[in-house]
Amino acid sequence: MTRLFAALAALALLPAAAQAADGGRVFQLQCRTCHGAASTAMGPALDGVAGAKIAARADFAYSKALKAKEGTWTDAALDAYLAAPLKFAPGGRMTTAVANPADRAAVIDYLKALK
Ligand code: HEC
Fold first, then answer.
1. How does pLDDT run across 13-46, given as a tens digit for each residue?
2. pLDDT above 80 for 9
3. Which residue, 101, 86, 115, is CA-closest to 26?
4. What are the domain boundaries of the chain?
5. Domain 2-113 is of which CATH architecture?
6. Ligand 1 center to residue 31 CA distance, Å?
């Protein structure tokens, strides 16, 4: 009985662990509706965004709040923005946050691979 329980517990934990480390899955579930391969009214395209200047695409009308931010999308800036977008850029247009730090790290790695 104990062994059966342990096996079931392991099965239940596996998908959660895999999901936490899978930035592509986080992106599909939480970002893809607004961020496609091309910029739309819903959101800017994100290819090359890691390391780029904040709010710098010519094909998207950013909020004044995000435009006013100085600097580039470093890991730390992306982490702060995804943790609390409206704290990072009060009055900005993106409200979706990623609460879990492991999910944030994974989706930031995913963004870095978007060329
Ligand atoms: C409901 C739509 C929506 C969702 C969902 C969304 N975003 Fe956004 N995102 C936006 C909008 C709109 C902006 C521009 C914000 C502004 O101008 O203030 C933006 C901006 C960004 C930027 C800055 C882009 C740049 O060119 O400087 C990054 C990075 C980003 N989003 C990442 C993500 C990630 C990662 C997710 C998923 C965890 C996500 N977004 C989910 C709408 C969304």
1. 555 554 456 999 999 999 999 999 999 999 999 9
2. no
3. 101
4. 2-113
5. Orthogonal Bundle (1.10)
6. 7
- Per-residue pLDDT tens for 82-93? 999 999 999 999
Altogether, the residues listed in the chain come to a count of 115
Contact 110, 20 (CB under 8 A): no
**Gap from CA of 94 to ligand 1 centroid (Å):** 5
14 alpha carbon to ligand 1 midpoint, in Å? 29
State pTM to two decimals. 0.87
Of 19, 34, 69, 88, best ligand 1 pocket probe by most atoms within 8 Å of the beta carbon: 34
114, 48 contact by CB (below 8 A): yes
Phi, psi (rounded to 5 degrees) for 90: -60, 130
Tally of CB atoms within 10 A around 56: 14
